[in-house]
Amino acid sequence: MVGTLGIACKPEKWTLQSHFTDEVLAVSGQFFNNLTDRQITELLENNVVLIDGPSVQILIDRGLGELVCANQVELKKARTGYQSYEQIDGMTIDGIQNPRVTMLQHTGDYYQVDYEPAAPVQIISNAYNENAKKLGPAMALVNQRTLILPMNTDPKYGWESQYYSIKEKLFKRILNQITDLDYVIEMPGTKLTAVADQMVLSNFTIDDQAQIQLHLTSAKANQHWKLYFHEGAQLQSMEVTASPDSNGMLTIPYRLKGLETVILLAEF
Fold it and tell me: Is 94 helix (H, G, I), strand (E, B) or coil?
């Protein structure tokens, strides 16, 4: 899901020797059931991790709820008339105060998490019913490192309800506060993969992007880059001379065509 929102990511293979520290990770589904309690604890305590509803349920079931300051969780099935919408209270996104995202259509079930009183939990959004009654927390940030999206995937539509500019900007805003990461800005449908010296951008829409706009990690912001692209059968390149602004945004005056993929390589 995070890749579709323009946040740089890649699949990561887990083996018995896997060990992650100071990374930004996303975990979903039944993945935690493949790990020991110690592995789960190390993963959550040593990294910034985005987890979903089933992941919280596994933590509770295995007696590890304290890792996310949770006492219990209740599953509320989608399309049962319980939850209607998610509201991001106290924020303005896309010029909308307290914006809302549906919990009725093209969405998975809602996991209503009961957090420990006075715990280091920032409630980012809440679930409401059709009468505007607050039901419980939706997105939450625990210990300034574990971001909880208390939903599961819809068997038909996956995470489709989350593919929305409000949710995209919310994810980026929160993650940008707690970690350093790469992502595209105002480039819907564009995916980004990034390593230390290379970034690949793919426009998965048929619409051109007027320019490339990237938020870069502090390490990448200090590098010089060269953009590689095709004109017909010919490989072309251009120097990236623009510098990131005070917000870390790099603007490249290149029109990224529909269904086009380009590569940025660091110049040493």
Answer: coil
| Model confidence, pTM | 0.92
- How far is 30 from 162, CA to CA, in rounded Å? 20
Token pair of 156 as six digits: 């038909």
The DSSP annotation for 224-253 comes to: EEEEEEEETTEEEEEEE-----TTSEEEE-
Please say whether the beta carbons of 238 and 226 come within 8 A: yes
DSSP element (H, E) containing 177: helix 165-178
Task: Identify whether the C-beta of residue 50 lies closer than 8 Å to the C-beta of residue 25.
Answer: yes
Contacts of residue 267, defined as CB under 8 A and 6 or more positions apart, other chains included, come to 223, 224, 225, 226, 239
Residues of 91-114 as b/e, b for ≥16 C-beta within 10 angstroms? bebeeeeebebebeeebbbbbbbe
Tens digit of each residue's pLDDT (9 = 90 or more) over 78-132: 999 999 999 999 999 999 999 999 999 999 999 999 999 999 999 999 999 999 9
Q: Can you tell me the distance from the alpha carbon of 163 to that of 37, in angstroms, rounded to the nearest whole number?
A: 32
CA distance 263 to 120: 41
CA 214 to chain CA mean position, Å: 15
Q: What is the pLDDT of residues 175-209, one digit of tens each?
A: 999 999 999 999 999 999 999 899 999 999 999 99
